[in-house]
C-alpha cells in the first residue's frame, strides 16, 4: 500500500510446485486490499529459485532461508516489527512451522495446512508408489507401463526426485524423513492459525490437529468443508472464503 506509516506485513510463500506470482493472485492481492504490506518469496528448491539455480534442492532447515526474508522485511522502515506475519501454503505449511519455531520475530503464523512430518504427509498422497517393491529412477521412470503410472504421475515423481535432490524414488522419500518439525514446535509462542480442508485427507487433518494442539501460543484451527465449496487443497475452489478467514484472523491479532 502507498499509505504512510508503519505497516502490518505478511510474508507469503507457496509450497512444492507453486510460485510467488501465483501467491499474489491467491492471497497477496487480497491482503493489499486490506491494507497489509506483502512480501512474496521463493526459497531453496521452490520453482522461483530453481529458475535461477536449477540444482538447488529443498532443505529441511527452512528456518535458515526464511530468517533471511525476515531480515529483509525488517530492514524496511515502513514495516511494523510488532505486526509481522508469515503465511505458508501447501508444503509451505511445513516451512512456515520450522521458521516460526526458530524465529521469534515472526509475530503471527498461518499454515495452510500445517505439516509436521513430510514423509508421512507425502506418503499419504503418493499411495501405492511408496510401497513399491522396486525402485524407480529418473532413467527408468518412462519405462514404467502406463497401467501402473500415468503420464501425470510420472511427471510428479520426476518432480519429487529432482526437488529432493535424488535420481531415485526410494532415496527421495528417504530424504523426506529429515523434514520433521519435532519438539521445536513447542517454541512457537506467536498466535497460530491452522487452516486445512477436509478433502485433503486424514493425514493432513491429523497433522493440522497435532500442530494446533502442540504450539505454545494461542492457536485456532479452521477446517474448510465441502458444503462451503472449500474442501480442496489450500481451498483453491473458494479463495474468497479462504482469504477472508486468513485476514479476519490477522486483523484480530494485529488490530484492524
The overall number of domains is: 2
In which order are the strands of the major sheet placed? 2-1-3-4-5-6
Low-confidence stretches: none
Q: State mean pLDDT (0 to 100 scale).
A: 94
CATH class of the largest domain: Alpha Beta
User: So, the CATH homologous superfamily of the largest domain?
Assistant: Alpha/Beta hydrolase fold, catalytic domain
CATH architecture of the largest domain: 3-Layer(aba) Sandwich
Strands, count: 6
Strand content: 15-25%
What is the rounded distance between the termini?
15 Å
The largest sheet, given as strand count, sense and whether it forms a barrel, is: 6 strands, parallel
Return the structural class. alpha/beta
CATH topology (level 3) name of the largest domain: Rossmann fold
Topology of this structure?
Layout: E1 7-13, H1 20-33, E2 37-40, H2 47-50, H3 63-74, E3 79-89, H4 92-102, E4 108-112, H5 118-126, H6 151-163, H7 169-176, E5 192-197, H8 202-214, E6 219-224, H9 239-254
Parallel strand pairs: 1-2, 1-3, 3-4, 4-5, 5-6
Helix pairs in contact: 1-9, 3-4, 5-7, 6-7
Structural description of this entry:
This protein is an alpha/beta fold and 256 residues long. The chain folds into 2 domains: 7-117 and 179-254, Rossmann fold (3-Layer(aba) Sandwich), CATH 3.40.50; 118-178, no CATH class. The chain has helices at residues 20-33, 47-50, 63-74, 92-102, 118-126, 151-163, 169-176, 202-214, 239-254, and strands at residues 7-13, 37-40, 79-89, 108-112, 192-197, 219-224. Strand 1, helix 1 (20-33) and strand 2 (37-40) form a beta-alpha-beta unit. The mean pLDDT is 94.
Amino acid at each position: 500500500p502507498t499509505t504512510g506509516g508503519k505497516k502490518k506485513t505478511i510474508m507469503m510463500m507457496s509450497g512444492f510446485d507453486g510460485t510467488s506470482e501465483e501467491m499474489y493472485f491467491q492471497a497477496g492481492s487480497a491482503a493489499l486490499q486490506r491494507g497489509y504490506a506483502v512480501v512474496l518469496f521463493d526459497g531453496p528448491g521452490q520453482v522461483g529459485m530453481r529458475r535461477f539455480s536449477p540444482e538447488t534442492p529443498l532443505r529441511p532447515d527452512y528456518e535458515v532461508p526464511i530468517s533471511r526474508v525476515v531480515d529483509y522485511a525488517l530492514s524496511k522502515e515502513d514495516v511494523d516489527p510488532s505486526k509481522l506475519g508469515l503465511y505458508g501454503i501447501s508444503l509451505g505449511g511445513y516451512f512456515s512451522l520450522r521458521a516460526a519455531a526458530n524465529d521469534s520475530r515472526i509475530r503471527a503464523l498461518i499454515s495452510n495446512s500445517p505439516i509436521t512430518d513430510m514423509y508421512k504427509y507425502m506418503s499419504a498422497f503418493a499411495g501405492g508408489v511408496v510401497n513399491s517393491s522396486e525402485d524407480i529412477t529418473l532413467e527408468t521412470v518412462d519405462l514404467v507401463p502406463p497401467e501402473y503410472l500415468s503420464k501425470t504421475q510420472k511427471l510428479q515423481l520426476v518432480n519429487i526426485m529432482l526437488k529432493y535432490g535424488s535420481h531415485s524414488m526410494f532415496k527421495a522419500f528417504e530424504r523426506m524423513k529429515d523434514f520433521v518439525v519435532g519438539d521445536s514446535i513447542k517454541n512457537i509462542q506467536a498466535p497460530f492459525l491452522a487452516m486445512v480442508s477436509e478433502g485433503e485427507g486424514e493425514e493432513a487433518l491429523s497433522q493440522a490437529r497435532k500442530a494446533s494442539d502442540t504450539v505454545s501460543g494461542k492457536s485456532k484451527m479452521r477446517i474448510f468443508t465441502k458444503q462451503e465449496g472449500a474442501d480442496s487443497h489450500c481451498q483453491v475452489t473458494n479463495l474468497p472464503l479462504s482469504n477472508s478467514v486468513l485476514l479476519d484472523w490477522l486483523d484480530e491479532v494485529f488490530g484492524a
